[in-house]
Amino acid sequence: MNSALNREIEEIGEECSVPGWDGYGADAVTAAAIAEARVFAETIDFSRVVPEVGIEPDGAVTFEWHRSASLTLSVSVQGSGVLHYAALLGTERICGTEAFRARMPAVLRDLIMRIEQQDAESFAC
Question: What is the pTM of this model?
Answer without folding.
Answer: 0.89
